[in-house]
Amino acid sequence: MADTDVRRPYVVALTGGIGSGKTTVSDLFAEQGVPVVDTDVIAHELVAPGQPLLASIVSALGQELLDAYGRLRRRKLREMIFTSAETRATLESLMHPRILEEAERQILALKAPYCILVIPLLAESGNRDSADRVLVVDADTASRAERLAARDGMTRTQIEAALAAQASRDQRLAIADDIIDNSGEKSSLPQKVSSLHQRYLSLADEWRRSADEPRTVPFG
After folding, report:
1. CA separation (Å) from 152 to 18, 70, 140?
2. Alpha carbons 125 and 100: distance in angstroms, whole number
3. What is the residue extent of each domain of the chain?
4. pLDDT score of 4
5. pLDDT tens for residues 25-66?
6. 1-35+112-212 classified as CATH 3.40.50.300
């Protein structure tokens, strides 16, 4: 990232495996008034019909990824990346730089003590330095599989492939500063998020007071 004198908020990266409940948790932070920059949302916007990135992906991976209206067939792409490491690497090389560039732009525009940066594949990317703190939403395999079947209608085989394509639970937990256990019932989530919100406000204040110069977004 180029040197800049722009102040930015304290960045808490929120990550977790597929089906762990990242969106539920990020929505609860948003209810507390915390800005949320979601790289999944950014990715969806970048591959809308007519976007240059969509054309690059189709050129690299095949016309069968487009439907009759020129829209990305997301389920088809998901099947491809869950079954082919090469395809997944190609897609990531095309998308990740653009996603991080847009995430950085959004963060620098914020006026808040801290923000939540949703990065589902943080453990896989090895880009731990993209945030000041890491919050992992954790859930056991059975809970995640149940949610995927209910939410996306995935078969057992598809669920197993999706789980296998991502970092292990231990790998995600190894990069965590904070962990929210989202196995089973979700009734305790609001209180967990509220407690972390207060902690992050305090950490952001300490971080800001300790800075000798304006802080910049720590993307590589």
Report:
1. 11, 22, 18
2. 12
3. 1-35+112-212, 44-109
4. 42
5. 999 999 999 999 999 999 999 999 999 999 999 999 999 999
6. yes
